[in-house]
Write a structure and sequence with these properties.
The complex is a heterodimer of chains A (611) and B (366). Chain A is α+β, with helices and mostly antiparallel strands and 611 residues long. Chain A is built from 22 helices and 22 strands. Chain A has two domains: 197 residues, Penicillin-binding protein 2a (Domain 2) (Alpha-Beta Complex), CATH 3.90.1310; 338 residues, DD-peptidase/beta-lactamase superfamily (Beta-lactamase). In chain A, strands 2, 3, 4, 5 and 11 form a five-stranded mixed beta sheet that branches. A five-stranded antiparallel beta sheet of chain A has the order 13-12-22-21-20, sandwiched between helices. In chain A, strand 12 and strand 13 form a beta hairpin. In chain A, helix 9 packs antiparallel against helix 22 and helix 15 packs across helix 18. Chain B has 366 residues and is mostly helical. In chain B, the strands form two sheets. A three-stranded antiparallel beta sheet of chain B has the order 3-4-5. Chain B has a two-stranded antiparallel ribbon with strand order 1-2. In chain B, helix 2 runs parallel beside helix 13, helix 6 packs antiparallel against helix 12 and helix 11 packs antiparallel against helix 12. The chains are: A alpha+beta (611), B mainly alpha (366). At the A-B interface, helix 1 and helix 2 of A face helix 6, helix 9, helix 11 and helix 12 of B.
Chain lengths: 611, 366
């Protein structure tokens, strides 16, 4: 029927064709095997890493911020535990029945219940914890603890909040913490070689950063280093088991030189008047008191404040957020006189015996313009000592008139005017030590001789912060030795810088101190009313900052009707004499009299420091 | 070589090489599936039932004489096509695809049946046609193949469709399709590529092909599967991470670990050495099939064994190629290993028929 040859050739053709297809498969299969070999053997380490990365999830663990102490070792800022009720959604079958059981012992409002219900499924699928209620009361904690066996998947955990034990005393000195911006967080984490990822928080408010004051300047030390928990995860991002825990390194504690008692005295004395008090331990340059009033509660700011309360603070005319101590610019007024006097001695313009007649005014020879003193009729014959005690403007007008402005500016800069005098203050203002160049650039006017004359009594363009004034007082007390101010007691590392030449000797300094003591002790001293307040000898120089220039006392009575026009009261003081340990500066805005208004605050702070 | 187990009263047609290696593969499959399903007993019990049933079915289907398949091949094809239409109407829709017919005790993927019925039918149709196949017969069969491909493709199931299409073409080719016809159609296919791309491919299918061409395009999008599969395979290394210790599979990074991507699980847990041993069994089965085809008793058997074994080889290769990323992702199980009902059974059926054709000899050859 069928040709055998044909059958043979058909079979051969079939076989050839089958082999062609299988050859193709063989080829493809070799390629597959080569591919698998390269995946598993040549590129093994790459894929091994990828597999480990896949199943690994790192979570940051927030460190606790350092504690801030005063100089006696008392805690100013602490981390206060709050207790939160937390559940593990992945192990809970029915959230509704759990919530109804919990609500019998813990007061849950509808917001809290809604929050839990909304987030339950997500947290369950990722195996994360869920906070049911923050800030449990003691009763709630007790009620839960005794029944905790009923709630195997719920527990109470500690979350901290930053708490200042003296929230209004140290508003500006210590400052407050607050939420962190994305950029700040990225920078912080990058400095710790970390990436921004999910974080286990120790603070109920999450990430925190020092916003102002020491919380900000020492944020690097206080913040600590994030730890890490490394988990195994599945493909859906669900945490399975903890593989490794690198503990966070908590922030370093800061031991400040602040003196709570002195600060409290300053705060009470200021009595919410607008102003600032800065007190310095002369030997070390340590800031022991630093107050700007009125103040505000840092705890409220750190841990949540209602927007209405916050707006009230922002809109308060007294500007409680404004740090007057390091940012308020005030004319030093008569408190500049010791420095001007020293300048006269240094440049041999005057000596201690040199005297002039003070008729109550100084007439500028160039244009006959009259510069008045505070007392009509003047002080008669005044030398440097008397000029300091009675605060004769005429004497210092005349001294300044004979001074070279550039030399004078240079000299004043030695006292910290126009400079940053503090190593760790938050955002200190340099205020203004004016120069002819400054005036030309900013006011488009040349420097007049009258500008120099005004400088002689600390009025005009010259301004200083209370912090700078305190530094200035420290330099005067320390007989010309200066040291950067600081909130932390690292005084031993700081070197004294002696800024004065041979023209002023120890005797000159003693005479200067005597005249400043006379400001209080002398019956004609401008601050003689302070005599009864002090318990030891104090050197001082008061000042009254004229905000509106008036020719007569009658004129002043008119303008003082408006409180904002009244003179600022200002004083620098140090004691106990003859070996002063503390220096203080006080500014009270619109306080009118340096001696009798700012003076008592300064004396009270010194009394508290020198017991 | 025994082709028959002789008993006192009856004899069983049986090929020990195929039977043993298929049984071994099936048991290994259960073992791998246990790990891939993360110790899900339900899955294993169900799969074990399929394996036992499948092996029995294979044994049963080896018994009839090949003429039985030859005579009834048109009936089988008719039933298979009817079932395809029934699926179209009564089918169960899963993820937008209508491929399954619910039979109560079992959900049948009807395209798996037509994958077997079509080559058998073609082999029997071409059994007594003069060679080389005339243009008319070529076109007739080609149209039939295209029609059936379209049935499967429209479910939609491109993967199985392609295997069905290839199954038909294999038979035509093996039967002696003229080279002229082959080259002409090949040219036409190339030319019509853009048309197919625009009109016949679903957007997700196009996406898969694009992803295949440039996998780094979206590591978490459509190439997630292939990225995770490569990580699983690569991280297995030379000797693997150990049974049930593959993190990619056990932590669910690997998608479809029980079905299409089970090879990646095996590669992760047993390494390159492990898969070489596993693939040796497949290789052995294919070699045996070539041998049997060459020694088949007539054209029908030759074509059937060749065609069915090539379907097996194609399915295997598409699965492997897809898992290591040398061809685009089309749903394709690994024969005898992946979890699955219809596709698993279809291979037991195919090998049952192969064994029948290999073991029944005619005293008088045609």
């Amino acid at each position: 029927m069928i040709n055998l040859d044909e059958r043979y050739s058909e079979k051969k053709s079939f076989f050839n064709r089958l082999i062609i297809i299988y050859a193709f498969f063989g080829f493809a299969f070799s390629f597959f095997l080569y591919r698998t070999y390269s995946l598993q053997v040549s590129e093994y380490s790459e894929y091994e890493t990828a597999a480990i990365d896949n199943k690994t999830k790192e979570v940051l663990v927030q460190p606790i911020r350092g504690i801030i102490y005063d100089r006696a070792g008392k805690i100013i800022v602490n981390n206060v535990p709050t207790y939160d009720l937390i559940i593990k959604p992945s192990q809970i079958e029915s959230i509704d029945s759990l919530l109804s059981d919990l609500s019998l012992i813990i007061n849950l409002n509808s917001n809290e219940i809604d929050y839990v219900k909304e987030n339950f499924d997500l947290k369950a699928s990722y195996n994360r914890e869920l906070v049911v209620k923050k800030n449990l009361s003691e009763i709630e904690i007790a009620q839960f603890e005794v029944r905790s066996y009923k709630f195997p998947n719920a527990f109470i955990d500690v979350r901290y909040s930053r708490h200042n034990n003296y929230p209004k005393l140290f508003s500006h000195a210590i400052g407050y913490v607050g939420g962190v911006s994305n950029n700040e967080l990225t920078d912080i984490l990058r400095s710790q070689k970390l990436q921004q990822i999910e974080t286990i928080f120790k603070y109920s408010n999450g990430y925190q950063i020092g916003k102002t004051g020491l919380e900000s300047t020492y944020d690097n030390l206080l913040r600590g280093k994030f730890g890490k928990k490394i988990y195994n995860v599945n493909a859906r991002g669900r945490l399975l088991d903890e593989r490794q825990f690198i503990k966070p390194i908590n922030g370093k504690n800061i031991f400040t030189t602040l003196d709570i008692d002195a600060q409290k005295v300053a705060f009470d004395q200021m009595d919410n008047r607008r102003g600032a008090v800065v007190a310095i331990e002369i030997d070390t340059g340590s800031i022991v008191s630093y107050l700007s009033t009125p103040s505000f509660s840092t705890n409220a700011i750190s841990n949540g404040i209602s927007s209405s309360a916050f707006n009230a603070l922002i809109q308060d005319n007294d500007k409680p957020f404004f740090d007057r101590a390091s940012q308020g610019r005030y004319s030093p007024a008569s408190t500049i006189k010791p420095a001007i006097g020293l300048f006269g001695l240094e440049n041999k313009i005057i000596d201690w015996d040199f005297s002039i007649n003070d008729p109550g005014y100084f007439i500028l020879p160039e244009d006959q313009r009259v510069y008045r003193g505070w007392r009509k009729g003047g002080h008669g014959k005044v030398n440097l000592n008397k000029a300091m005690i009675v605060s004769s403007n005429t004497f210092f007008f005349s001294l300044a008139y004979q001074s070279d402005i550039y030399k004078l500016i240079d000299y004043l800069s030695n006292f910290g005017f126009g400079a940053n005098v503090c190593g760790d203050c938050f955002n200190p203002d340099k205020a203004l030590l004016p120069s002819p160049e400054w005036k030309m650039n900013n006011l488009n006017f040349g420097w007049f001789k009258g500008d120099t004359v005004n400088l002689g009594v600390g009025q005009g363009y010259l301004s200083a912060t209370p912090l700078q004034l305190a530094y200035y007082a420290t330099v005067l007390a320390n007989k010309g030795a200066s040291k950067d101010l600081s909130f932390t007691n690292n005084g031993n590392e700081k070197k004294n810088q002696y800024i004065f030449s041979d023209n002023i000797n120890d005797l000159d300094w003693e005479k200067l101190h005597q005249s400043m003591i006379g400001v209080i002790e002398s019956p004609i001293g401008t601050a003689k009313r302070l005599q009864e307040l002090k318990t030891f000898t104090v050197a001082a120089k008061s000042g009254t900052v004229e905000l509106v220039s008036t020719d007569t006392k009658e004129d002043y009575k008119v303008i003082r009707e408006n409180e904002g026009n009244r003179d600022h009261a200002i004083i620098i003081a140090f004691g106990p004499m003859p070996n002063p340990r503390y220096a203080v500066s006080v500014v009270i805005e619109n306080g009118e009299s340096g001696g009798s208004v700012a003076g008592p605050v300064a004396i009270a702070v010194l009394n508290s420091l020198i017991k | 070589m025994k082709k028959k187990l002789e008993f006192k009263n009856f004899s069983i047609y049986f090929d020990q090489y195929l039977f043993i290696s298929i049984t071994l593969l099936s048991v290994m499959g259960l073992f791998f599936l246990y790990s891939a399903s993360q110790g899900d007993l339900n899955t294993i019990i169900k799969q074990s039932i399929f394996v036992c049933f499948g092996l029995t079915l294979m044994l049963i289907l080896s018994q009839p004489d090949p003429d039985f398949y030859k005579i009834f091949s048109n009936l089988f094809l008719l039933i298979a096509i009817s079932l395809m239409f029934a699926t179209m109407i009564f089918g169960k829709e899963i993820n937008g695809a209508k491929r399954w017919l619910n039979l109560g005790f079992f959900t049948l993927q009807t395209s798996e049946l037509i994958k077997i019925a079509l080559p058998i039918f073609l082999a029997s149709y071409l059994y007594n046609k003069p060679l080389p196949i005339s243009l008319r017969h070529s076109l007739q069969t080609f149209l039939l193949i295209c029609f059936i491909f379209y049935l499967v493709y429209s479910q939609p199931d491109l993967g199985t469709g392609l295997v069905v299409f290839m199954a038909g073409i294999y038979i035509l080719f093996l039967a002696g399709l003229s080279w002229k016809f082959i080259l002409t159609s090949f040219g036409l296919i190339i030319l019509s590529m853009p048309f197919i791309w625009n009109n016949f491919l679903e957007p997700f299918q196009r996406q898969r092909i694009l992803t295949f061409i440039n996998p780094s395009n979206d590591p978490y999008g459509s190439s997630w599967n292939i990225t995770q599969s490569k990580i699983a395979i690569g991280s297995g290394g030379m000797s693997g991470k150990g049974y049930q210790d593959g993190s990619q599979a056990s932590l669910n990074f690997l998608p479809e670990a029980e079905t299409d991507f089970i090879f990646a699980v095996i590669a992760e847990e047993f390494g390159f050495l492990g898969i070489c041993i596993l693939l040796f069994f497949f290789f052995f089965i294919l070699l045996r099939c070539i041998y049997l085809a060459f020694n088949a008793r007539d054209r029908f058997c030759r074509l059937s064994i060749g065609g069915l074994s090539l379907i097996f080889a194609s399915t295997l290769f598409i699965n492997l190629g897809m898992v290591v990323g040398i061809i685009p992702v089309v749903g394709m199980p690994m024969p005898f290993i992946s979890k699955g009902g219809s596709s698993l059974l279809s291979f037991y059926i195919a090998f049952g028929i192969i064994i029948s054709m290999a073991t029944h000899k005619k005293l008088m050859q045609k």
